[in-house]
Amino acid sequence: MDTINLTIDHKPVVVKKGTTILEAASGIGIDIPTLCHMKLEDLNIENKPGGCRICVVEVNGRRNLAPACCTEANDGMEVNTHSMRVINARRTVMELILSDHPFDCLVCAKSGNCDLQDMAHRLGIREIHYKGEQSTYREDTSPAIIREVDKCIMCRRCETMCNEVQTVGVLSAINRGFQSVVSPAFEMNLDHSVCTYCGQCVAVCPTGALTEVDETGKVIRALSDPTKTVIVQTAPAVRAALGEEFGMEAGTLVTGKLVAALKRLGFDYVFDTDFAADLTIMEEGTELLTRLQKHLDGDKDVKLPILTSCCPAWVKFFEHQFPEMKDIPSTARSPQQMFGAIAKTYLADKLGVKREDLVVVSIMPCVAKKYECGRDEFKTNDNPDVDYAITTRELGALIKLSSIDFKALPNEDFDHPLGESSGAGVIFGTTGGVIEAAVRTAYEVHTQKELPRLDFDELRGMEGIREATIDFNGLPIKIGIAHGLGNARKLLEDIQAGKSEFHAIEIMSCPGGCIGGGGQPYHHGNADVLKKRQMALYTEDRNKTIRKSHENPYIVKLYEEFLGKPMSEKAHHLLHTEYFDRT
Amino acid sequence: MPKIKLAEHTIELIKTICAEFGNKESELINVLHKVQGELGYLPAEVQEVIAKELKASVAKVYGVVTFYSFFTMIPQGEHPISICMGTACYVRGAEQVLSEFKRQLKVEVGESTEDGMFSINCLRCVGACGLAPVVTVGEKVYGRVAPTDVKKIIAEYRDGCTSDSKTA
């Protein structure tokens, strides 16, 4: 029998076999509260340990209450989702969870965005009847992520992300009973572990147990220092998500308002990481074509596929897990770091500002970018190319703090010369976007012909691993795409085994790419939010007059005035990097 | 935690045990059990080797080691003493027995005496509730132990003379 007939709150429902009570209820508009459960539709991500027991329902004839998230619907089942017994049980469970939770909501980084707080509110908790021992753990601070384990409710969402989705394996439940907690091995600090700082644990944590390192204070201090020139770059994915921090619909493009807000915050120049994305394409695309040509000429020393290197979590991942393959990824720095390197040389000269007096701030959808800008190879005389990287969420907080009515802002334009970008730069923020941008340029450089079309639908989508063959005027270029480090691992293992036939592979650590980054407004388990952000970036790309990186006039000018040509000695020094064995 | 360097033959031993279980992650508990049987304890470095061989994350291995009270990361004494804290033993005075062991040996639960002879641990139920409170020293089980028996039990091992009295 493939279909199941049951009633939920006296309403008849017909569902497919294998459907949970939670899903069956949701299909008829019954919203059973959940806390530990999380499902990202279409991304194949689900956490349902059945641990928190908030979703319990009463099933007629069954002695115990059943957790709706992990109990399958059966034929003839009669389910009640809000009987007195159910409501009492949920409230008791909630009070017990709260009895071991620090009551510092007023000063907690997650306040207002906390699933636990929301659930306490929803269940109408006004008093905690249980007093007892409180678990206490030390705080763990790393360059990007803070763990305040006192606030952990053992939902295991972070563990699912770290192990099943990302296959990084840093976080695990340890100890038992009351002592049980999620931790790295041997309770070591995150910065001693193989953590990539992808921030997907932060993105799904229902409480304030995992948050990003807040650097808004440092930015405010820099902005109020009259001796400093403070400039800012904003990553592509930020414009497709920042509006959510102000109650706007997911996928609303706020590029113009974003620029206006940054100007009002007091940044001297507001630039675009998309410009640096175009620059990345010039370097990475040239590197691809050079490697490809040598490969076609029969040079055995040249390794293919070439892998993209824009994502700092991905870089740290292969440095820890696949160090023997560190010569395969492109040597091109990420757009954030390319921007920093150009800003502190080319731009500083143009502005007549000393390197030490120029502060570069980036707005990133990412927490790993905080770690990336602190890497030693991106510093000159201890002065980093990028001084501070703050997340989309931190920018939202900064705007609110500064009495700016975001929704009422007019649209304003980026400054020049580092603010102009092509549509190719914009789509860097989504899975498939970097490689599509690279194809647009590499095709024209290689064939010396204009592309017959600009939208490569075969490279787009949300499938974890995608592949496509693009015809470079008779030369078939095989392309692979992976988002989520677990998917990346599969492609890497194929390369290791000599089974990979790809010429180029794009890898982004976060599901969906940067639009789903660990620093983005919280999606609260709703994958539609990511899809809407993705659509927004493709819309911005379509609306651009220039859609190919090599046609960005400011990029052309940068090479003419400063860099010479792609992969020149100067470009190599400023825009490329090396990788390290971190085992 | 101070780092220890494992001897080559120890690493080989761990690898052999992992291989016996097909290097399967699903055999983790069996592997840990056998390795602890050979080495006496499971320090971090040993867990790292096991994780690598079974292609599991070190965090997961550590998670399992810390979940089961049977596994220990601290070297055991030559004569590991375990006091049962299961319900039956507890209500019949296991806690006083434990206190007496701690007092006489001057160590806490999970620690070893300075001479390495004894270590104290608690466990949950050895399935001999009729003999509560139960203490085991190595493989030997002592039943109906009173705090006044503690001195004699320790002496058996310290003086090398084992008597048969009060053993199960």
TrEMBL record, chain A:
Record domain 4Fe-4S His(Cys)3-ligated-type: where: 85-124
Domain of life: Bacteria
GO MF assignments: 2 iron, 2 sulfur cluster binding; 4 iron, 4 sulfur cluster binding; ferredoxin hydrogenase activity; iron ion binding
The UniProt record lists the keyword Iron: yes
Pfam families named in the record: Fe_hyd_lg_C, Fe_hyd_SSU, Fer2_4, Fer4_7, NADH-G_4Fe-4S_3
Domain 4Fe-4S ferredoxin-type: 186-215
Limits of the 2Fe-2S ferredoxin-type domain: 2-85
Family matches, as Gene3D superfamilies: 3.10.20.740, 3.30.70.20, 3.40.50.1780, Fe-only Hydrogenase (Larger Subunit), Chain L, domain 3, Iron hydrogenase, small subunit
Keyword vocabulary terms for this entry: 2Fe-2S, 4Fe-4S, Iron, Iron-sulfur, Metal-binding, Oxidoreductase, Repeat
Entry keyword annotation includes 4Fe-4S: yes
Protein name in UniProt: 4Fe-4S dicluster domain-containing protein
The organism of origin for this protein: Maribellus luteus
TrEMBL record, chain B:
Cofactor(s) recorded in Swiss-Prot or TrEMBL: [2Fe-2S] cluster
UniProt KW Iron-sulfur keyword: yes
Residues engaged in binding [2Fe-2S] cluster: C84, C89, C125, C129
Keyword Calcium applies: no
Keywords of the record: 2Fe-2S, Iron, Iron-sulfur, Metal-binding
Superkingdom of origin organism: Bacteria
InterPro entries associated with the record: NADP_DH_HndA-like, NuoE-like, NuoE_dom, NuoE_N, Thioredoxin-like_sf
Note on how the cofactor is bound: Binds 1 [2Fe-2S] cluster.
Pfam families per record: 2Fe-2S_thioredx
Protein name: NAD(P)H-dependent oxidoreductase subunit E
Source organism (scientific name): Maribellus luteus
